Amino acid sequence: MPGLTTRFLVIAVLFVTCLMVSNITAVKLIDVNGYVLTGAIVIFPISYIIGDVLTEVYGFAKARLVLWVGFGANLFAVLTFALVAVLPAASFWDGQAAYEMILGATPRILAASFLAYLLGEFANSYVLARLKVITEGRMLWLRTIGSTVVGQGLDSTVFVFVAFWGVLPLEILAGTIAVQALAKIGYEVLATPFTYAVIGWLKRCEGIDHYDRETRFNPFTITRLQD
Q: In order of start, what are the domains of the chain with their CATH numbers?
């Protein structure tokens, strides 16, 4: 597997940026024709598209590296927000409540977010990598959309149930999961032409088209950067 290139690093930075912005904007609930979604719907699905690009072009191992970098960056941000929240506020500053409302989160919400991210993103990458081998590189649309159905469905299900089980009625939980997952999958479908263009361009520029025929799919396997 080729070493890290400038293009790969740029894509990795874009992934982490989308993830960080999504986690902050998720605190706002928006109304879309009567359906309640988090503000993260604007940008979070892009992280799955980038994940598709990484796995399709560079392979599961490189995508796994970026997924863990994203997880670490998000954890660092959460810990920083928590630390700043407990520091003594200036006597004239009246924004403590607003700060805690926007950047603070309960342990249960954090656990739900981290678990949903890991399960959803790794499932997305795994399914795409396996489908690529099975289809022998054909039907890219099937791989990108199919992996998103699994990944986003798992992400939405895990987050909503872990975060709100026992708080909201079961029918509300199910409806929320369905709306969130369908919105994210629809995002992926609409972005398919763009995803095709980016993947095609990267494959030509990098001169690679990785197939995970002998890859170890253990998400905790440590891979050398130059592999």
A: 6-206 (1.10.1760)
